[in-house]
Amino acid sequence: MGLTQMREQDPNSLFGMGNPLLDISAEVDKDFLDKFGLKPNNAILADESHKALFEELIGKFPAEYHAGGATQNSIRVAQWMIQKPEKVGTFFGCIGKDKFGDILKKKALEGKVDAHYYEQEEEPTGTCAVCITGDKRSLVANLAAANAYKKDKHLDLEENWALVEKAKVYYIAGFFLTVSLESILKVAKHAAENNKVFCLNLAAPFISQFFKDGLMQVMPYVDVLFGNETEAAEFGKAQEFETEDVEELAKKAQALPKENTKRPRVVVFTQGKENTIVAQNTFPVLKIDPKDIVDTNGAGDAFVGGFLSQLVQEKPLERSVEAGHYSANVVIRRSGCTFPEKPEFH
User: Fold this and answer.
1) Is the pLDDT of residue 252 over 70?
2) Known catalytic residue: 152?
3) Which sequence ranges are marked TM in the entry (predicted)?
């Protein structure tokens, strides 16, 4: 076991690519959601109508800043769960040369993640308004720089692609489909051709609704598909699965055509405090007293991070789900996708 164990834990063995965003997080009221047409537990992209939202969020409510962006969160959590060696997780994404970009760089460094940002000056670093009501969160992402990621300017560069080749497990949240489908496909094909593990997250209902074509171009390469019950339902609708049963949805997603037949597809649908469905099993989540929940923002990302931390160590599926439940349980007790210095996961 000695040698393989060393190899399993190599730096850069987990690769993530996505939208690095600085989360601006605040507790708001229902009036605020209504004013900007937001739904609890949803995620959307900002448009013209949300210009005032960011200013109002910072002006009216005590806001906190956290390193965010779904994929980056998951890579940070995975690295936290693994602890040593450092820089097991690599992250690619685009930021601006500004204050918010500096904060993201600092947070990546603190989290021992090997972040290689494509830095450009045209667009400012992306932000995400995290509007919290009770134990629900509504996300409004202003992608800005995150939307300016370029395959030819970053992913294709020899030194960057070498980092992709070092990885064994790849994770990309569906949000990145709105930015660079060609980058996702290049990584996904590399994974399939080399029998490595490619993971994708359905990310938000609007991805299945409006970016279905891109999603279905990537789907044949997906070895592990993540989503929550709302995203699963929307995916099922878009695919005309004709069921709302989450277990059935998972089975149908699992059965979609697959490129690398050496690995059966695993589908993992979380349902908040209800059981997590893994095609073909269910796993109970860790119980938590509702009054201990501070903020569910980042819970899904944390679940994926915990899951990936075990997957990259080639642990059994049950162990990955357990780790996912553990890290989500830690993160929802805190504000933002943050965590204590060390995990207590044994």
Assistant:
1) yes
2) no
3) none
